[in-house]
Amino acid sequence: MSESVETLLEVTDLSVRYGSTVALNGVTLSVGVGEIVAILGANGAGKSTLASTIAGLVPPVSGSIRFMGKSIDKLAAYQRGRRGIVSVPEGRGVFRDLTVMENLKLGVVSQKLGHKYGRESISLDSILARYPRLSERLKQAAGTLSGGEQQMLVLARAMLSDPKLLILDEPSLGLAPYLVEETFDEIKRYADLGISVLLIEQNVAMSLELAQRALVLSNGNVVASGTTRELSQNGALMDIYLGSVDSLQSHGD
Hints:
- The model is unreliable at about 245-253 (pLDDT under 50).
- The radius of gyration is 18 Å and the shape is globular.
- The longest helix has 16 residues, at about 175-190.
- Helix 3 packs parallel to helix 6 (about 145-160).
- Strand 9 and strand 10 (about 220-225) form a beta hairpin.
- The protein has a single domain (about 5-245), classed as Rossmann fold, CATH 3.40.50.300.
- The strands form two sheets. It has a six-stranded mixed beta sheet, sandwiched between helices.
- By secondary structure, it is an alpha/beta fold.
- Helices cover about 35% and strands about 25% of the residues.
């Protein structure tokens, strides 16, 4: 990471086990303010485990996590959320039986709980102006939205929480190609607003294009890290850990 970028998140020697299975083994990474860092690797590499551990949903067996210069190792997930770590898990996670407006109001509640930690208010009107398709469906049950609209709803709800760090786990999964591009454009706009993004994605090519830096995991181990330009030029790395270069434009599960 560039020396001029203020560090927001520092993860050091993080290890996680599920019983006798090693899910993460000594993972170290950092994310700067307004920076997009991609976490890449095949299925089962440990990407989602890393996201869940940072969010406070999975306890590590060793290692440390610092956020805004302070240790958050002993904080529960909801306490990390109040400080500005907002996680959007794979599968979108809308409350299907609630209306679009009710889903959005959950983000407002989270925002209010975070005020004591210096997080500012974001108006619902400003979010709806950003997502006009949602403003037309406020009384509609979230479960009846299209896949792309559900993704918009999850991102809008996350933005209402006023995140400092947004953890996105497979945000493009199952979306049509034009919606994938739209989603990645929106992620870029978040970074432009100063929001840091930890991006977990199977779409390697677009992730390398969007992010400034990336980390490649294999069986819970960091096998490569660096700027996305450096990694994208490493053909052997692409072939071994991320699939052949010819297949980078395809989006696997």
